[in-house]
Write a structure and sequence with these properties.
The protein is an alpha/beta fold. The protein has helices spanning about 1-15, 20-30, 35-40, 45-50, 55-70, 85, 95-105, 105-110, 115-120, 125-130, 135-140, 140-155, 160-165, 185-190, 205-215, 255-265, 290-300, 305-315, and strands at about 70-75, 80, 175-180, 195-200, 225, 240-245, 270-280, 305, 320-325, 330-340. The longest helix is centred in the middle third of the chain and has 17 residues, at about 140-155.
């Protein structure tokens, strides 16, 4: 009886201990460009190794694992082809390759200092790179581009499309996206409401990325870009909908209240604020939100919150949560309206 009970626990423990090996194996495949090389017709291991400029034996052994992980499939003649997972690692629009590169490099290095984070409460990213994530991205244009592509790819594959499907924007004429990043969410919403115009507010170095995406998707004539700090820049008054997507998780409670209070000051009585975040469920349900909670702590000192915590933030800011809309991947849209 003891042996039967111990074996599953041992396997679970080993799987947890070695989970990072899978991450780095997938990261290596993306870095070497194996999914793209397979798509281009380099299907045999020797050919793949030559095309990637890599060691043939090492590539063969990597492919063997990636078949077991569901990234590739092996043909009867010994060649390889992409699965749906492998296809998402190709260098193409809408893939998760940039997410893989970011999480396998900068974020992986940050997690290497996780024990320091849990001892001190300070982000592991700062221990790894000697500066905050924001400073790092501001100083490295290539890293900033890759970061924003990764965030856009996550949005494409997870929740943003669902926002426009699950929430009615048809009556909106003005939508304001605060800290709108790459412009992906605003473009998605405006795409569903042809008669609306949008305003995107973010730091100056992010605006060229957002501007290019919005011009390509909905047209520059429908969007105003404002460079500014979300804590100090006045927000446009009386918009129909204000968007705050994956922002509050980066900040402590008092800063969130300051930001939410600024939004409340700009809102009309008919206005609403949509807060899009992962919401940590009570009890033991849901795994992604607690994982993301720790990831944010390690990367930038942020955290994900429970619904109760969001109710408290809203109440302190003169707002109330009218409803919660479930989105894919444990994300949710909280609709906040002026209290009273």
């Amino acid at each position: 009886m003891s042996k039967d009970n111990t074996a599953p626990a041992s396997r679970t423990t080993i799987d947890l201990i070695t989970a990072a090996w899978k991450t780095q194996s997938v990261h290596a495949a993306a870095t070497l460009g194996l999914p793209d090389l397979i798509e281009a017709g380099h299907t045999g291991a020797p050919d793949l190794a030559r095309a990637a400029g890599a060691d043939e034996d090492a590539v063969q052994r990597l492919l063997r694992l990636l078949v077991r992980l569901g990234v590739f499939e092996e043909d009867a003649d010994g060649g390889y082809r992409n699965t749906a997972v492998g296809d998402l690692l190709r260098d193409r629009p809408g893939s998760l390759r940039d997410v893989c590169l970011l999480y396998g490099e900068e974020f992986y290095q940050a997690w290497g200092h996780a024990s320091e984070t849990f001892r001190t409460g300070k982000p592991g990213f700062e221990a790894a790179y000697g500066q905050s994530l924001v400073s790092y991205l501001r100083a490295d244009a290539d890293a900033a581009q890759r970061f924003h592509r990764a965030m856009q790819a996550q949005a494409d594959n997870f929740a943003f499309d669902a926002v426009a499907k699950e929430i009615d924007f048809s009556a909106d004429r003005h939508i304001v996206d605060i800290a709108g990043g790459s412009g992906q969410l605003l473009a998605t919403v405006l795409g569903a409401v042809p008669g609306a115009r949008g305003t995107l507010i973010d730091l100056e170095h992010t605006l060229p990325i957002a501007g290019a995406h919005l011009e390509r998707t909905v047209g520059a004539d429908r969007v105003e870009l404002i460079a500014g700090n979300m804590f100090t820049t006045p927000f446009p008054k009386d918009a129909d909908t204000y968007l705050l997507s994956r922002v509050l998780g980066d900040w402590p409670d008092d800063d969130c209240v300051r930001l939410l209070s600024n939004v409340r000051e700009a809102m009309a009585e008919h206005s609403r604020l949509l807060v899009i975040e992962m919401v940590v469920q009570e009890g033991h349900s849901g795994l992604l939100a607690p994982l993301w909670d720790l990831h944010m702590l390690v990367v930038n000192g942020g955290h994900q919150r429970t619904l109760g915590a969001y109710h408290e933030l809203a109440a302190r800011s003169g707002l109330s949560i009218a409803r919660l809309v479930q989105l894919p991947m444990e994300a949710a849209a909280l609709e906040l309206t002026p209290a009273g």
